[in-house]
Design goal:
Layout lengths: L13 H4 L2 H20 L5 H23 L9 H20 L3 H25 L6 H17 L8 H42 L6
Helix pairs in contact: 2-3, 2-7, 3-4, 3-7, 4-5, 5-6, 6-7
Length: 203
Amino acid sequence: MAAASPAPGAGPDTAQLLAWKPFLARAVVSAVFGLMTIFWREPSTLVLSVVGGLYLLLTGAAYLWTHRMQHWGPRAKLLTDVGGGLLLGAGIASLVFIDDRSFAFAGAVALVVAGGAELVRGSAVRGHAAARDLITVGTIGLVTGAILPFVDGLGAHALLGVTGGGALLTAVVLGIAALSYRHDSALSAPSASGALGEPDPVN
């Protein structure tokens, strides 16, 4: 059952704040990949396929973890399941087919669909604490995927640069969000437990 929406004027539900866990996982994966694309000066097609494929695989797993948590509710669930599945599929395709074009087009389709699905879900769950973050990272993924086919002819370095740039932006957004929600959930837990254990006042 989905978590109930908070009452007007109340803070976000504690269950909603648990989004910090998959958000942090995605932020770490994106940050590591993004930094690798900066410091790896002359990547080969093999590096692109292996490093990029692993990034898409791990991102797909964390993406599905994010969107299969119950507090989002059923809205746009099918879209995000498809998006996560495509990220996993693109990662496998990149690892199997050692080719710039395979990474460019498989990654483009996966990132566009997954980003679009996340954008739709963020718009559909406006009352959720993390709705704005979903809209932001969804837009980043969609734009990153849309650019990839246009830099296919420029080689592995350009493909990694575009994908890594989107990954770093995603890492910043989700990293800040994860730390913020982690802090809020830590504050909410003692308050909730204290409220449950507090005896009713005697008139």
